[in-house]
Specification:
Blueprint lengths: L23 H6 L4 H29 L10 H36 L7 H20 L18 H4 L2 H30 L12 H32 L13 H18 L2 H15 L6 H14 L15 H29 L8 H24 L1 H7 L3 H31 L5 H27 L14 H31 L37
Protein name: Cytochrome c oxidase subunit 1
Family: Belongs to the heme-copper respiratory oxidase family.
Main location: membrane
């Protein structure tokens, strides 16, 4: 499809590309270029990562020893709630949208995203939402302390900070829906001539499916928090048993959003790893079509497993069995992916540059997270470990070791294309090993704490849990410092200079993004490339 008009003809509104590159603050405020918007998403996500990480360190500081040390329990609960909300909606999701903006047009040979101005709008909603969310600490009574899931009846009883959180989540949801529509239209309509869907890079496939998931479930979350809002202020009683409502209904609606959301936060990570591993194994991705079908089946199955978060609410045994088996079934396509990555590496000419280290590290720790999730899927076991630190360990293995590690792999892999400079390998490896070791020191002991019965979201605990909590807190500090090291000694220096990157920055890298110079010019693919593979 031809995408770009010339100066003298009429401009297609989604492609005002022939203009000179804007400069100064206007370049960022009115950005319509996918690389600029991608950069802003990544910077925004990084800021939220450190905000959420600071909250995590305050939580671990309080839990370093038994007894209340530094924080009031009410403030401790506000921190656990906002840590979750900021990390999910402010760090992980925007970071993946940043990767999508940066890479999808480059990978499919498009000149830009389909709706350039909507792209700008969907970004600028995010800082407003983040300001509302973080500003809710200053509201009378502080931020919401209902947990990141915002369960009724707690969320109905909170102070005005809860309303700020509801408004912030509405804005972030609107941003996600607009961003997703943009990604779907871009991928379906703007691929280079010759690139059929089944020849598309795996990262584009995972994001296409993720975008459909977001469009499907973000309105469900909006419905849930709107009902909380009307219960709070307009006299409805959706979730108040006293008025004929049902607090458990909130959980059903929330998790119908919340479980697909888990896959929204991991599918793009699968896509990144599926780009990195073939490059450094110097082999084509093993079982490409099975990877596509596995990704799609994960997305479809994600809609029928939500109540595995609710085994302890007292559902009939048939319900427990259905959700237990459905959850075990969803492990199959995930396992297919892991075997495909291992088969891609099998007998490959492997080298372990930093992106590959992160990708292999991802497979190792994400698999641990997958197995602990399978254990939570067993209804009888789950009733014992529900709401303990075992669950905290499980989902941090999936979200930190899954989403975050894959993002670091993607950063080290594509940063030469973004900046024009290679990342310093030694510093990258220091960041990797620091993160890998301290991550496991932080979260592995939490499995034992949970199995021994320590509940999550508590500011204090009995003395028998002291040793593992101390180890976890020391690990958390190390992990936080590793990310500070990344910011100061890896990310910022790479944007300033270093060894010049070639167009094809990595030996063995395939794909259209490696055919343009590094850094990728402001306007790429004004004439669509012809893709023949």
């Amino acid at each position: 499809m031809s995408t770009v008009t010339t100066h003298d003809t009429m401009h297609d509104h989604s492609h005002d590309h022939a203009h000179a590159m804007p400069t100064g603050w206007r370049r960022w405020l009115f950005a319509t270029n996918h690389k600029d918007i991608g950069t802003m998403y990544l910077v925004f996500a990084m800021m939220n990562l450190f905000a959420g990480g600071t909250m995590a360190l305050l939580i671990r500081l309080e839990l370093f020893q038994p007894g209340l040390q530094f924080l009031r329990p009410e403030f401790f609960n506000q921190l656990t709630t906002l840590h979750g909300l900021v990390m999910v909606f402010g760090a992980i999701m925007p970071a993946f949208v940043g990767f999508a903006n940066m890479m999808i047009p480059l990978q499919i040979g498009a000149s830009d995203m389909a709706f350039a101005r909507m792209n700008n709008f969907s970004f600028w909603i995010m800082p407003v939402a983040a300001a509302l969310l973080l500003g809710s600490f200053l509201a009378p009574g502080g931020a919401t302390a209902a947990g990141w899931t915002l369960y009724a009846p707690l969320s109905v009883q909170m102070g005005p900070g809860m309303d700020m959180a509801i408004f912030a989540i509405h804005l972030m949801g609107a941003s996600s829906i607009m961003g997703s529509i943009n990604i779907v239209v871009t991928i379906l309509n703007m691929r280079a001539p010759g690139m059929s869907l089944m020849k598309m890079p795996m990262f584009c496939w995972t994001w296409l499916i993720t975008a459909y998931l977001l469009i499907a479930v973000m309105p469900v979350l909006a419905g849930a928090i709107t009902m909380v809002l009307t219960d709070r202020h307009f006299g409805t009683s959706f979730f108040a048993a006293s008025g004929g409502g049902d607090p458990v209904m909130y959980q059903h609606i929330f998790w119908f959003f919340g479980h697909p959301e888990v896959y929204i936060m991991i599918l793009p990570a699968f896509g990144i790893v599926s780009e990195v591993i073939p490059t450094f194994a110097r082999k084509r991705l093993f079982g490409y079509s099975s990877m596509v079908y596995a990704t799609a089946s994960i997305a479809i199955l994600s809609f029928i497993v939500w109540a595995h978060h609710m085994f302890a609410t007292g559902m009939p045994v048939t319900g427990q069995l259905f959700f237990m088996y459905a959850t075990m079934l969803i492990a199959v396509p995930t396992g297919v992916k892991i075997f495909n990555w291992i088969a891609t590496m099998w007998q490959g000419a492997m080298t372990f540059e930093t992106p590959m280290l992160w990708a292999v590290g991802f497979i190792f720790v994400f698999t641990i997270g997958g197995f602990t999730g399978l254990i939570c899927a067993m209804a009888p076991i789950d009733i014992g470990i529900q709401d303990t630190y075992y669950v905290v360990a499980h989902f941090h293995y999936v979200l930190v070791a899954g989403s975050l590690f894959a993002m670091f792999s993607g950063f080290y892999y594509w940063a030469p294309k973004w900046t024009g400079y290679m990342v310093n390998e030694t510093r990258g490896k220091i960041h990797f090993w620091g993160s890998m070791i301290f991550f496991n020191v932080t979260f592995f002991p939490m499995h034992f704490l949970g199995l021994a019965g320590m509940p999550r979201r508590y500011a204090d605990y009995p003395v028998q849990f002291a040793d593992f909590n101390m180890i976890a807190s020391i690990g958390a500090l190390g992990f936080g410092l590793s990310q500070l090291y990344f910011l100061l000694f890896v990310a910022l220096p790479t944007y300033r200079g270093g060894k010049k990157a070639e167009a094809q920055s990595w030996e063995g890298a395939e794909g259209l993004e490696w055919t343009v110079p590094s850094p990728a010019p402001f306007h790429t693919f004004e004439t669509p490339p012809v893709f023949n593979k």
